[in-house]
Amino acid sequence: MATSTTSRILRTGALLGALALLVTGCADAPAPSGSDSATSAAGDYCARMVTNSGGLDDRSFNQSSWEGLEKAQSQFGIDAQVLVSTNETDLAPNVSQAVDSGCGFVLTVGYELADATLAEAGSNPDTHFAIVDETVEAPNVKPILFDTAQASYLAGYLAAGVTKTGRVATFGGGNQPPVTLFMDGFVDGVAKYNEVHGTQVQALGWDKNAQDGVFTGDFEDINKGKTVTQSFIDQGVDIILPVAGQVGEGAAAAALENSGVSIIWVDNDGYDTLPAEYKPLLLTSVMKNTGDAVVEIVGADIGGDFSPEPFVGTLGNGGVALAPFHDQESNVPTELSSEIADLSSQITAGSITVQSPSTP
Hints:
It contains 13 helices and 14 strands. The chain is an alpha/beta fold.
């Protein structure tokens, strides 16, 4: 995903030129991906990944994480395999099985795997773990986190700038930090647009002050996403940000049945991962460049430079970004693109701080 996404981002002009996709960590930089030193040190190194209950082809962070591990396998010549969880009862046994494989590196994905990761890390201090989108504090566990509020802020500003009805919305799969972080940034971006332009665009589905809003209660039931989205559409919403994994596909299905409604995808570029019929509906995507982070962390581990210090992806280091506007590029005025590029620069420089209780 990282290579194709980068080329498309470079083609979008001023906005995406401001968002570099070279992923680096907040700790000391690991050995460069594909370096001779990492490759020569790989030897019999092997890695295992465990998905959360959403499965592998979730069009979200399981899929992106595995793409990263596959890329690491190709670059470093390591053995990489994935254990797919399809329900909650699979989680702990799969992590245990990953450890029992004898591999020195185990990658787990999502909050559902936090307890199992912590337990296995405690029992296996010589095994190195990394966990995506969750903080687990242990000397042999590296959290992989993303400040998605920064990129969602830009998405909210964009949505407020192109809405025809003056109403946009967001909803989540569950009220948990990796989800609400997107939602906080989104509604703040809408508020920023209103402040700058003197407009009154409404953002439904999330109350940042109360830290509560609309949730489907899971990340797999597409029908729930369609029902929630149709409810928003019935209230006059024409741009929707679902932060709910596969449930978001239901949002796209509802948008397809209602002319003039657009979707903002999350985690990866939905233009690449969603079924073709949904491509024209995508305004943009708020991306976490998980794959690049995984490659860097595996490369560092191979080179003997593992650290439990969290990797935090930001706009500044390319860990988060907006995807191109693709089929809807003509709907985004050049002036609006320039404003978003300027906002991105200000966030990177620290002159604008996107705040959230869930900021990693």
